[in-house]
Amino acid sequence: DAGVTQSPTHLIKTRGQQVTLRCSPKSGHDTVSWYQQALGQGPQFIFQYYEEEERQRGNFPDRFSGHQFPNYSSELNVNALLLGDSALYLCASSSLRTANTGELFFGEGSRLTVL
Amino acid sequence: TQLLEQSPQFLSIQEGENLTVYCNSSSVFSSLQWYRQEPGEGPVLLVTVVTGGEVKKLKRLTFQFGDARKDSSLHITAAQPGDTGLYLCAGGTGGTSYGKLTFGQGTILTVHP
């Protein structure tokens, strides 16, 4: 049973560029949430996708956008990159069946460095 | 804005010692989860507690959810070097907010042989 897979694992960009990160959820899961984890901090919620729509959003600017495809996979896009966007970006999948417990299954993350 | 405060932020102990990590909030959560994260990897779920006062044991790890569902603790008995890692607590509000967790800042645990 494949877990949550993310790509790329590492990438380096320069200020002002755009980046796209990808995520495939765990088999049987229909919901994808994205988190940003700065070094030495806990993850912070960016947004969540369910049924190809953004359902919830955290306190992140519009430069952060996303998409969910019919096969439940998802993309996170960040435009006009800033140095402060350097972080580990985590994708987490879940299912409506576990909604009451809020359990999430995380991928290994994409480490973004902005120079 | 819901916040979760973890303490301590850093813990360095010798193998065989016991330890407790605390997670506190002024907000009520419908569930509280504990994750462990290794460097360069995503968090791995250890346990979920959903009932106030609930206690769960996972081998040498004991998790407790406060009666008012605002706080939680993780106790490790006879710590081993393999327990080294970042421990994160996360609160969920369930319902239509499932998948949106509020994380504490984490506790970095180092267990020396």
**How many DSSP H or I helices of chain A?**
0
Succession of helices and strands of chain B: EEEEEEEEEEE
Average predicted confidence as pLDDT of chain B: 92
- Give, in order, the helices and strands of chain A: EEEEEEEEEEE
Secondary-structure class of chain B: mainly beta
Terminal CA distance of chain B reads: 41 Å
**Low confidence ranges of chain A:** none
Strand content of chain A: over 45%
Q: Most extensive interface, residues per chain? A: A-B, 32 and 31 residues
The average pLDDT score of chain A comes to: 92
Distance between the termini of chain A: 37 Å
Number of strands of chain A: 11
Shape of chain B: globular
Oligomeric form of this entry? heterodimer
Q: Profile the largest sheet of chain A.
A: 7 strands, mixed
**What is the overall silhouette of chain A?**
globular
Poorly predicted regions of chain B = none
Count all strands of chain B and give the number.
Answer: 11
